[in-house]
């Protein structure tokens, strides 16, 4: 099946619109007509060459769409189903899957067996799918474990957010850190991931939710979604005010990535506090932490994709969105079309507050 896709050929580089071939599903695969895809910073890290991946590649992993056709062994979704993709595809049988940590799955046997044509190609040459999904494309093709069905009433520009931003940010709070009512927290970075962590803090009943961002334009959304206080980490007076208010927090969340933000998030903790690292580091980053504060009962942990069990989590988050407990509307900054994608990614650092979502509609086809 032919599909117009945004292709990355070099990194750092730009996305170019090209026609690719999306193969028919193999036994365990699902082919999906894309409705909407959120613009996650993890794709931007690849576009900028901070995280190296095989090229050419079609990025886009925070996606919702409609199942077009399925392989003979696919049992949990059918053509016509509305599905959300999540990059935490999983085998169901490895030690990680069986111990409830499918986000760490060894992923043996999920790729196509040798000898088969590639899932995505162009003139017979392999095109790689970013994070196993490749949804900046009219159609994408994934292993069946990378999708879960969602209720229809949720508009697709909101539903897309569930696949990465929400599952990652909310999961970091609920699953990885397990924030309890009354505990205090700080979230550094108020993009799609940070705003989701802030919402989860509100839902978990956190006592104080201090949001940090270097861009003050992000403050109003953070406050709307549950932050109790907002701070600019570059201003010493803001840091002093935070210290006076909290004396250090029980939970710090780095929703930016890299050694500087990881260390400053750690510095926001009180004794016994936990620093949860969500932001993606560059390929060769090392993190350095002061030893004595670490000895004082503080902990540091990574959170991969919000330690998710997404086939359970995403339908739950969808119901929370429908009931109004989870505010996806306020997380949306704007929608763009495929032809606006490259310019939007280039301007993402100074972009509008909230998540920008690529929307496919009949007119753009
Ligand atoms: N752990 C995971 O599994 C996982 C999953 C998805 C995304 N991520 C990573 O999470 C991070 C955030 O992703 P996103 O899509 O929300 O990004 P985003 O670009 O939407 O938002 C980043 C926010 O951080 C702010 N910021 C930048 N530098 C800052 C600093 N020094 N201090 C405070 N705020 C700062 C920006 O103004 C922006 O509001 C990225 O590194 C992304 O790759 C990790
Ligand atoms: Zn993502
Ligand atoms: Zn597994």
Automatic annotation (TrEMBL):
Species classification: Bacteria, Bacillati, Actinomycetota, Actinomycetes, Mycobacteriales
Pfam families in the cross-refs: ADH_N, ADH_zinc_N
Keywords in alphabetical order: Metal-binding, Oxidoreductase, Zinc
PANTHER family per UniProt: D-GULOSIDE 3-DEHYDROGENASE, NAD-DEPENDENT ALCOHOL DEHYDROGENASE
Organism this protein belongs to: Tomitella cavernea
Name of protein: Zn-dependent alcohol dehydrogenase
Domain Enoyl reductase (ER): 10-358
Similarity comment: family membership: Belongs to the zinc-containing alcohol dehydrogenase family.
InterPro entries: ADH-like_C, ADH-like_N, ADH_Zn_CS, ER, GroES-like_sf, NAD(P)-bd_dom_sf
Cofactor: Zn(2+)
Record CDD domains: Zn_ADH_class_III
């Amino acid at each position: 099946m032919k599909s117009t896709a945004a292709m990355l050929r070099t990194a750092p580089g730009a996305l170019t619109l090209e026609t690719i071939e999306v193969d028919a599903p193999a036994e365990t695969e699902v082919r999906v007509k894309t409705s909407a895809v959120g613009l996650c910073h993890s794709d931007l890290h690849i576009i900028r060459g901070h995280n190296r991946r095989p090229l050419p590649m079609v990025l886009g992993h925070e996606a919702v769409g409609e199942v077009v056709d399925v392989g003979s062994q696919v049992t949990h979704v059918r053509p016509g189903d509305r599905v959300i993709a999540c990059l935490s595809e999983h085998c169901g049988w490895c030690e990680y899957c069986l111990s409830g940590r499918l986000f760490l799955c060894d992923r043996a046997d999920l790729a196509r067996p040798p000898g088969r044509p590639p899932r995505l190609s162009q003139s017979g040459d392999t095109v790689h799918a970013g994070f196993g999904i490749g949804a900046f494309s009219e159609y994408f093709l994934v292993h069946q474990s990378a999708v879960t069905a969602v209720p229809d009433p949720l508009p697709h520009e909101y539903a897309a957010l569930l696949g990465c931003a929400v599952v990652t940010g909310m999961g970091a709070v609920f699953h990885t850190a397990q924030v309890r009512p009354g505990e205090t927290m700080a979230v550094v970075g108020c993009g799609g991931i940070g705003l989701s962590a802030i919402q989860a803090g509100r839902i978990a009943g956190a006592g104080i939710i201090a949001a940090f961002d270097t861009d003050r334009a992000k403050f109003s959304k953070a406050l709307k979604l549950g932050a109790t206080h907002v701070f600019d980490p570059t201003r010493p007076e803001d840091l002093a005010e935070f210290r006076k208010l909290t004396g250090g927090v029980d939970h710090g969340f780095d929703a930016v990535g890299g050694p500087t933000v990881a260390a400053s998030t750690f510095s926001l903790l009180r004794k016994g506090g936990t620093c949860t690292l969500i932001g993606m580091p560059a390929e060769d980053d090392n993190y350095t932490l002061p030893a004595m504060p670490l000895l004082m009962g503080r902990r540091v942990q990574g959170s991969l994709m919000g330690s998710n069990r997404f086939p359970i989590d995403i339908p739950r988050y969808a119901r929370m969105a429908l009931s109004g407990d989870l505010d996806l509307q306020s997380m949306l900054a704007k929608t763009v079309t495929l032809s606006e994608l490259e310019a939007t990614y280039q301007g993402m650092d100074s972009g509008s507050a909230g998540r920008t979502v690529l929307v496919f509609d009949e007119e753009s086809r």
